[in-house]
Amino acid sequence: MNRRDFIKSSLGGITLLFGGVAGYQLYLESQERPFEKTKAIFLTEADQLVLSVLIPVILNGATDKIDLIKCLENIDGAIIRLPQKTQQELRQLFDLLGSVFGRLVIAGVWQNWQTATSNSLNEFLESWRNSSLDLLQQAYLGLHKLIIGSFYSEQSSWAAIGYPGPLSIQK
Amino acid sequence: MKIEYPNAIDCSLHPAPDNIECDVLIIGSGAGGGIAAEIFSRSGLNVVILEEGPLKKASDFNMKEADAYAELYQEVAGRQTIDQAIQILQGRAVGGSTTVNWTSSFRTPAKTLSFWQNEFGVTELSSEKLAPWFEWVEKRLNITAWLVPPNRNNQLLADGAESLGWSYQVIPRNVKGCANLGYCGVGCPLDAKQSMLVTCIPRALQSGARLFTRARAEKIILDNDKVSYVEVGSMDALGQPKTSGSFRIHAKHVVLAAGAIGSPGILLRSGFDRFNPLIGKRTFLHPVTASIAVMKQPVNGYQGAPQSIYSDQFLWRDGVSGELGYKIEVPPIHPVLASTLLKHHGESHFNLLQDFSRLQVNLALLRDGFNADSTGGQVELDEFDYPRLDYSISESLWRGLKHAMMSMVEIQFAAGAKAVMPLHMDAQKMSNWKEAKKQIEDLPTKPIRWQIMSAHVMGGCGIGNQGESVCDEFGRMHQFDNLSVLDGSIFPTSLGVNPQLSIYAIVAKLAASLSVRLGGELPKDLLIEN
Predict the structure, then answer these.
(1) Is residue B359 domain-shared with residue B382, that is, in the same domain?
(2) How far is B192 from chain A (nearest CA, A)?
(3) Which residue among B446, B466, B487 closes a domain?
(4) Per-residue pLDDT tens over the stretch B348-401
(5) How far is B149 from chain A, CA to nearest CA, in Å?
(6) What is the mean pLDDT of chain A?
(7) Residue B421 has pLDDT above 90, yes or no
(8) Residue A31: what pLDDT?
(9) Range with the lowest mean pLDDT among A21-30, A70-79, B258-267, B446-455?
């Protein structure tokens, strides 16, 4: 087993131990604030909660009015088209983020997700981005691609970067 | 004129057909499968085509990236090597990658073909023997030099090369009635791109070929040393395997044309590695590195023919088998692709995108597979039997990537760039060539950090001498009389040019000779002396 496989399997094991039902229960108890969620196929409520906190940080500056529901729908729509193996890896990542252990120890976010300051969330994202562990870099890039892609897919995001959108074609 | 697709059945909507018999089963409808389908069916053979993606037509193409990536690309345009260091853009729809490519159409370089002859004993595919096949394809797909002035993104590549005294040329394109929109990568809404989707596939269907879409070849089943039948699974509308809906196709001859990850993948799923351990090995990419310039004036890189200028100044910089050479081109610049490639978040991400309309991007595609250190990657199956590419970056590839980055950035400053940033997670914008050069020298050569992409996958079922390769030089798999591979996976190295025209012409030649062997009668235009 090489180093990466070891880290992967230990992260998976950690997720199983600390995540799953127990983590979900704990977070349910610790979460107060209602948030916008959508009926999704892949994304659970716990996943949507983490995303609803991370999306505004990743898109900070791009807009003052994020359509969270649209982003969540786009992310879900992309994931359900991915190969089974990739979906499995994303499941592990979201379970980890949703677990208390994952949030505290792996992401280093000490408040619950909703009360975390944007500074601490930024620090967590930067530390994953620049981590010496490939696995954490990959996790950052996975979240990055899903969130940024879900936002710039939408026409409403184009004016701010000076993209006029495709010409309309008479067919 | 509306293009008709008779005999096309969508397996996501319909129950599995009864078991099917045919002369030739073609697995895949891209560059290789499309050409082969036209040639076999016009020769009077009974043809069935399988495509794991959907049939989407011009009327479905709305020029929106998100819809195109979801419907027309492998893995929502996010396919990656196993270590996630290289992003692979590949089509997954009727027409394969030809439905979404950027139309660049180059003949295989003579140096590449001589290398195949000298190193792999491939004599059938010499420049002389292929010349009439290139002519046939160029006529068939209306491939000509693009005489419309290049868009700004391409023009700036020409300007930079010109001022440095480096060579550059105009790219031939496979288009007819092109309106210069710039949306080739998301499916041509005008049917102007002469992809397999609008040419050979409908032509084959009109000649009686049958097409099953959302249908994946799962396993090739043998009876002694002959293929008995192919087990096919139906896919749902999301591209996921359905639990029911499998069927069998009995064919006199089976042709694999599922691309250089798909074709070895099917052979591995079928356990053929027990006959030949080379299956899936020597799978090549043209690894691509890119640099982003901010110009003073608008570039609007989303508009106009995406690729019309190239520079081969460094393609053979150290001979054929020395230091890796590279071809310099530009990509189209659309918001989803651009925003997801900028691996920053928050304000620093948005600040980079503020310059979206003034971005000019160069890319270099490196010639993989020509030296001892450049042996490509390996296709493997994951626990779901889905094929993935394991590809590690060699020392010579790192040197090539760095050299290419230098050249691209130098061109951008020579073209008047205000600032340039290498596409690398640790790079900063630099405002002059001297600073930029220093930065590139110091950029860590680390996978993932150095952002590498590829839209060209080749090899994995390479042709050559028995014992050293997977197929003979006619594309027949060694040891199996009724099984051939007719797509880019038979290339024994990468090419050094965008691959579509090489696949078309080589497959046309091999399919015509196979057609005769199977008792087909070639139509007049295909009676080309071999």
Answers:
(1) no
(2) 13
(3) B446
(4) 999 999 999 999 999 999 999 999 999 999 999 999 999 999 999 999 999 999
(5) 20
(6) 83
(7) yes
(8) 54
(9) A21-30
- Give the A window 100-159 contacts with B, CB below 8 Å: 122, 125, 129, 134, 137-138, 141, 144-145, 148-149, 151-153, 157-158
Answer for the pair B340, A148: CB distance below 8 angstroms, yes or no. Answer: yes
- Confidence at residue A112, expressed as pLDDT on a 0 to 100 scale: 84
CA distance B73 to A147: 19
Q: Measured between beta carbons, which residues in chain A are less than 8 angstroms from residue B356?
A: 161-163
CA torsion, ordered A39, A43, A45, A47, to nearest 10 deg: -150
Q: How close, in Å, is residue B238 to chain A by CA atoms?
A: 5
Which domain CATH number covers B439?
3.30.410
Question: Which of A62, A122, A129 lies at the smallest CB-CB distance from B350?
Answer: A62
Long-range contacts of A90-95 (CB under 8 A, 24+ apart): A90/A42, A90/A142, A91/A42, A92/A11, A92/A12, A92/A15, A93/A139, A93/A142, A93/A143, A94/A43, A94/A44, A94/A46, A94/A47, A94/A50, A95/A15, A95/A19, A95/A20, A95/A23
By residue range, what is the domain housing residue B84?
17-103+106-124+197-280+377-390+457-530
> What is the DSSP track for B436-490?
HHHHHHHS---TTTB-EEES-EEESS-BSSTTS-SB-TTSBBTT-TTEEE-SGGG
Please check whether residues B117 and B50 belong to one and the same domain. Answer: yes
Residue ranges of the domains in chain A?
10-158
ipTM: 0.96
Q: Do B347 and A152 touch (CB under 8 A)?
A: no
Whether B238 and A80 lie within 8 Å, measured CB to CB? yes
Q: What is the pLDDT of residue A111?
A: 76
Show residues of chain B in contact with A157, CB under 8 Å. 335
**Cα three-residue angle B342-B380-B236, rounded to 5 degrees:** 75
The per-residue pLDDT for range A42-79, each reduced to its tens digit, is 999 999 999 999 999 999 998 888 999 999 999 999 99
| B29 domain-assigned | yes
Tell me the count of A-B CB pairs closer than 8 A: 118
CB–CB contact B354 A161 (8 Å): yes
